[in-house]
Structure formats: structure tokens, C-alpha cells
Amino acid sequence: MHAESATATEARRQMEICNACRYCEGYCAVFPAMTLRRDFSAGDLTHLANLCHSCKGCYHACQYAPPHAFGVNIPATFATLRAESYAEHAFPRALGRAFERNGTVVAGIAALALTLVLVLTIALQDPAVLWSPQRGVGAFFRVIPYWLMVGMATLTFGWAVLAIAVASWRYWKATAPAAKLTPRAVGKMASDVVTLRNLGGGGHGCNDVDDGFSQRRRWLHQAMAGGFLLCFAATTAGAFYHHFLGWKSPHAFLSLPVQLGTWGGVLLCIGTAGLLHVKAITDPAPVARRLLGGEVAMLSLLFLVSATGLLLLAARHTGAMGLLLAIHLGLVLAFFLVIPYSKMVHAPFRALALLRNAMETRR
Amino acid sequence: MVDFTRVWDVLVVGGGNAALCAAITARRLGASVLVAEHAPKAMRGGNSRHTRNLRALHPAPTKVLTESYLEEEYWDDLLRVTGGRTDEHLARTTIRASQHAPGFLEECGVVFQPSLSGTLSLSRTNAFFLGGGKALVNALYRTAEALGVEILYDTEVQHVAVEEGFATEAVLSWRGFPERIRFKTLVASSGGFQANREWLREYWGKAADNFQIRGTPYAQGRILKDLLAQGVQQVGDPTQFHAVANDARAPMEDGGLAMRLDCVPFSVVVNEEVDRFYDEGEDVWPKRYAIWGRLIAQQPNQRAFAITDSQALHDYLPSVFPPIYADSIGELAQKLGLDAAKLEAVVRDYNAAVRPGTFNGKGLDDCRTEGLHPPKSHWARRIEKPPFHAHPLRPGITFTFLGVKVNDRARVLMADGKPSANLFASGEIMAGNILGQGYLAGFGMAIGTVFGRLAGEEAARAARN
Predict the structure, then answer these.
(1) Residue range A74-78: mean pLDDT, rounded
(2) Distance from CA of residue A67 to its chain's centroid?
(3) Which chain A residues are within 8 Å of B114, Cβ to Cβ?
(4) Do B317 and A25 touch (CB under 8 A)?
(5) Where are the domains of chain A?
(6) Phi and psi for B250 in degrees, rounded to 5?
(7) Pairing of strands B155-163, B150-152
(8) Contact criterion met (CB < 8 Å) for B49 and A22
(9) CB pairs below 8 Å between A and B: how many?
């Protein structure tokens, strides 16, 4: 075993203060889970950190928050510990280093992927497809060949799924080795994920920006997550049309894939832009500043993916289609590439933490 | 930037729950209100920052209170803890009005929670603030600011000029700058003097240097002393304070609630001379924690040590600082700097006196000693399962009882019994009128809310006339 990180030691110090105080037990699942323990193993701390949704209620209510000498700042400390757990369980392990300067990594990969797609398009096709209008069946594939589009998507997305699955398995082994799965726990976890109950601050909302309560982050996050799922459904529907029904893109505006993608894109734009706005104006004290780069880069990438997708829809019958398609697919490629090495990891880890919590708190 | 030349309708001195309840109430009645808070913004709220709940009368279950808690029971509880050192009229005024305190606070944005673990089983009588007192303080400040109450942080009111029962102006230090404020009425909500070690030394001598101040270091009692020196009537025993058994390793100020130790009923407690001095198991801890601060304050060097073994570890809430462990009583004594032979003898005698019984950590059980002086009446188990552990104890002072005399409209009374024309008080600075000794959990916040509202209402009315 390797030595425990300074963040884990600090998180334990703070949890031991919290466990003697317990004023925050009504805010979220972290504090009731904390009271089940007297000693905090590294796995326990990683579990609690991933259970934390960064609602910041406990920070603003804390009598021991800085400038008190105890300096309790659970949201910032747990955010740092979470990021360490993403790095520690990454697959392959060496790529865990991507979390160290995650903003640079995500932005760099976005730039490279974008360039790669543009260069490949120019190299493989007639460069004129980038600015001449393409109409009718197969229009998109005249810009980017079908085999390349599907091949790269399958490879990169397939890799992302594999890497995330291995990381999640490693995370589960490290935090919940002896846990037993029950249908009730899975149901509770699913409900916690869908409602984001733990961003509700005990019912009236969380401290999005300052010590006032709101449900803004909760709604924005679910707009983003819902948009993401709609876009995923749009792609699946498109693939189904292509392979099973023989209906080739581009599809009509009112077709299922385009409708799903449009509304998904709109929701993604609203969610990501809104969350970026909240990040910009929020009280910086309970925020782990070192992680901001990666978070802002990921939100921006998702925003750009959805915004270029919507622009592509609007301009698909004009000469701008070729260039927009290349840019959109370049950004999608970047997104697929960074999934296992970015903030996206929080989704499976958080779900697993909620699952373990549901198993622990059987009532 | 606040206009120091204007005449304010109401100047509120202090920035805790009582002060803000007064400020909000006066502002809602149309008065111009200025709040002078000694602490910087991050540490605002006085002792309210460390509180957790409010004791409220209720004839039927509410969202946050179970069953019912009626006036007579509330009054009996108060009578028991104060031993009669109360003012029945003011006490009943508080008790009756406490029914509306949670509703008032909710209107001010305070959120209450259903009681969960870790509390002293108070969900019937006490409404708990979600997140605790600092969350309450945050909500009250937001409400006050939204209403247009002006708030000055880092502002210590140092003197209030009082002439024949009429307060004329306040001298203050505003962010280090000397300023004067003129006002029509003044509400003193600036707390007790428990953080003023020099003042405590007048009664307790050098022992005062060993007292830990659990709450705000800004409770210096400056305005309390100032008003008493200018002919305001005094109430409460100046030598007395509320104190609990704190961890001896806690910070000397502002350590807050988490420094208290609940291990006493499950331990034997000795002083530096390795003598036991009180029945550790006399009654359930919620009824005894408040006397242990005083007990420890009376020991040599104001220190004591709770000694127990591995069996007890899960019977009380975890402590912030870990217990001191050892494999034998002698080694434990050495680590604590105590006489090892004597501690071994104390534990041996205690173990020999323990009678068989069925242990129940949650209620009064039949595990007691026989022939031991002082006895241990409940939760007496042999201390024999290593590792042995110890928690060092010191008195942690919560508040002092000395205050200014008020009437049932929160108006300050002068030494001749006449009410002041424009001076009002709320919170700890006047709590001694009602709570002359002892303590009831959540009663300080009840007094603060009730008298804060009264003071704000009366001050706004007096300012209009």
C-alpha cells in the first residue's frame, strides 16, 4: 500500500471535528453516513468525499469554518479528495496524471482533436467540401467518410466505456469491498441520482452562490444531464434508422433523431452555460481552486459540442455545413477521448457512493 | 459608507440572535435601524453562532416539534433548574411568547430540521436549526439587510452616555476609527462578560486563567459594565456562570460545542490530586452536564481527568481530540502526569465497590457502587478492559448570569426602579432576569428571540413618539 495523501489526512481531521459536532446532519447524506463511524479509513474518506455533492451548505453553516483556527472546509477538501480518487483509480493508472492539470489536458485534447479532424477531412476528401453546400442523402458522409466517422466514434467511445468501467470497479473495490447489493438499494440510488436529493440542502436548496439557498445548481445540472441523455438517444436513434430501417441522414427536422438532438442540445447549452455562470459568481471560499480549470474546461467543451451541434442543424443546407460538421465532430471526438480522464468520472463514482450509502442506511 | 451624522431611530448594540430579532422587528415597524456588531463579518453572531436549538411551547405537534409542551411543564422545568432564582412574570411572558418564536424565525428565513441522532433527545421540547446557529445567524442577517437595516461589522460600542435614564449617544470604535452615533432609542444586545478574563479574575482570581471560553471572544461585557456604572439596575449573581466539562486541550476561546465531552457518566473522574470529587453517575447526562463545569472549576488548577476503558468508547459521542490510551492504569497515570500508585488505588477501590447490574447507557440503570465515597450511582462498570483511556477536562464557560434589569416590555430599569425612557435590552445581557442560575437547553435562544422582538417593537414605538 502507498502512503496516504495529505488531503486524506486533512479530511480525516475535519471529519473528526464534524463527528463531534453533527450540526449538519440535516443537509445531505454525508453527515448521517459519517455518524455511522468513529474511525475513518482511507476507503471511508474516499466514499464520503464522493458522496458529497458540493452543495456547500455545511461550509456556510460551519462554526469552525475559516477564519476559525479549526479551518473546517468540507466542500473544498472533499472536492480535492474526489479528484485524487479519480486519479488513483484511473485506467490505465499512468493516465491518472491527467487529473493534475486537467484544464490544460481537456483544452489541449480539444484543440488536437479539432485539428486532427480538419486535417483528415482535407487530406481524405476534396477540401472544397468544407465550404460548398452538400444536400440530399449522405450529405454528411461526403464531408467525413462514413467509415471514418463510425470507426473513430466506436474506438474512442468504446475505450471510454472500458476505461470508466475499470476505474469504477477499482473504486468500488477500494471503498465498498464487502457490500451486498439489494434491489432496494439500487432503487434508492436511482432516485437519489434522478432527483439530486443531496443538492437539496435538506429540502430548501443549497448554497449555490453564497449563504442564501436556491435550487439553481440542481436544475441546471439536471438540464445538462437530461440534455446529455437526449443527445445520446438521438445518436442511438440515428444509428437504428441507418442500420435497421435503412433511413439515411440527414433526417427531417421533425424526425426522432433530430428532435431528440435539438432539445438535448438546447438543454445541454442551458445547463452548461448556467453552471459556468454559477462557478464564475460563487463565493470562492468553499471551492477547490486547483480543480476549477478542469471543471470549466469540461463544461465549456460540453457547451461547445452542443452549441456547434445546434449551429450545424441550423446551417446544414448552407455552405457552412462542411466546416461546422468537422468542428462539431472534432469536439465530439475530444469529448469521447477525455471522458475517463475528466470531471465526467464523477458520474459513476457518485452513483456508486450513493449505492453504498443506500446499502448502509437500510431502514 | 454609513452616515455618522444622522440620528438613527434605533441603534442595536450587538449582532447575535437577540440583536437581529430586535433590528428586524424595529425595521419592519418603519424605524431606521443601525446594528453595531463587534466581530468581523466571518465571526458575526455572538454566541448564537454556536447554538443549535430553541425551546418552544407548543400545544400540539408541529413540523419540527413532537407531542406537546405546555406552559406549566415549561415553567416547572425552569423552576427546577433555577431553584427559584427567576422572575415568574418575565419567565411566563417568555414561555408564552416562545410558542411564536419558531414561526417568527422561519419568516426570517431560518430553516428548522426534524431532530436526528447526536442530540440530547430534545425533539419534543426544542426546535433544531438546520445547520445550527451559524445558519440561523446567516438567515437573520440576510433578512435584516433585505429590509434595509444598516450593519456595521468590526464595530465595538464602547460607551453609551446615559443621563437620568435617557441614553443620548454612543461612542464606538468603527474599524479602529473613533466615531459617535446619535439615536432616538438604543437596544443593548451585547451579551454577557464571559470572555472578559480580567473581569472573571475579580471573582475567581487566578483560576479564571484556566477557564475556557466556549463561545465568542467578543463577549467582553463592556456595555453591560458601562450601563451598570451609570445607574442601571443590576440583576443576577456576578460571580456565577454556566459551564460544562470541556476537553482540556480545547482552544481557550471559541472552541464551540464540539469541545464538550460526554464521557463523564461512563468514567471515573479524578482531579490532579487523584481524588474523585463527585458522583459521575448521579443522573442522565443532559441533566448533569451543566454542573460539571462548575465542579471542575473548583478543583486544583481547574483540571480533572475522566478515566475509563475500552468498553465505554461507544457509549458517548466521539471527541474531537482522541482519548489518551495506555495498556495499564499506571502507564495512563504517567501519561497524564498523575501519581500512578494513587490512580491504581482509586481504580482498584472503585472496581471493588462496583455491584453487579445490567448496563444501559441510554437511561438510568442499576449499575452502581456500594460503600464508595463519593458513590457512582449509575453506569458503574469495572474499569478493567485495556486499552484504558482518559480525557483531560477543564471548565468551559458558556455565559455569565450578571445582567441589566428589564421589565416585561424589554425596557431597562434604573436603580431607582423607574424605566429608562429609551433604553431596551435583549439576549444574554438581560437573561439573568429570568435564568438566575442553572440552564435549560435552548432557553437562551428563546429569551433572545422573545425579548429581541419585544425590544425591537418597543424601541420602534418609542422612537416614533
Answers:
(1) 98
(2) 32
(3) 26
(4) no
(5) 6-88, 98-357
(6) -65, 155
(7) unpaired
(8) no
(9) 87
Residue ranges, CATH 3.50.50.60, chain B: 7-205+217-237+402-464
Query: Quick one: pLDDT band at residue A306, thresholds 50, 70, 90?
Result: very high
- A42-51 and A74-88 helices, crossing angle to 10°: 110
CA atoms within 13 A on the CB side of A100: 4
Q: Which fold has domain B7-205+217-237+402-464?
A: FAD/NAD(P)-binding domain (3.50.50)
Supply the CATH classification number for the domain B243-396: 3.90.700.10
**E strand residue ranges, B138-259:** 150-152, 155-163, 166-174, 177-188, 212-213, 234-235, 241-247
Facing A24 at nearest CB: one of B42, B131, B322 = B131
- Spatial distance between the Cα atoms of B37 and B34, rounded to a whole number of angstroms: 10
The reply to whether residue B117 touches residue A17, judged by beta carbons under 8 angstroms, is no
CA distance linking residue B173 with residue B186, whole number of Å = 17
The C-alpha cell at B214 is: 466556549
Q: Where in chain B is the domain with CATH 3.90.700.10?
A: 243-396
Q: Which has the closest alpha carbon to B179: B44, B1, B424? A: B1
Chain B hits for A25, Cβ within 8 Å: 113, 116-118
CA gyration radius for chain A? 22
Rounded to 10°, the helix A74-88/A146-175 angle is 120
pLDDT tens profile A3-15: 789 999 999 999 9
Work out whether the CA dihedral A283, A287, A290, A292 comes out positive or negative.
negative
List of chain A residues whose C-beta atoms are within 8 Å of the C-beta of residue B113: 25-26, 202
Closest alpha carbon to B249 in B398, B50, B397, B394: B394
CATH match for A98-357 among 3.30.1050, 2.40.128, 1.10.760, 1.20.950: 1.20.950
pLDDT digits (tens, 9 = 90+) for B9-40: 999 999 999 999 999 999 999 999 999 999 99
A38 touches chain B (CB under 8 A): yes
Q: How far apart are CA B92 and CA B75, in angstroms?
A: 7
User: Over the Cα atoms of chain B, what is R_g?
Assistant: 23
Round to whole Å and give the CA distance between B186 and B160. 9
Are B134 and A16 a contacting pair at CB < 8 A?
no
- Decide: B254 and B426 in contact? Cβ < 8 Å: no
Which residues in A22-53 are b (16+ Cβ under 10 Å) and which e?
bbbbbbbbbbbbbbeeeebebbbbbbbbbbbb
Q: CA B206, CA A358: separation in Å to the nearest integer?
A: 54
Read off the pLDDT of residues A131-162 as tens digits, 9 standing for 90 and up.
Answer: 888 888 888 888 899 899 999 999 999 999 99
Residues 6+ apart with CB under 8 A from B429: B14, B188, B189, B190, B191, B192, B223, B224, B403, B404
- pTM equals 0.95
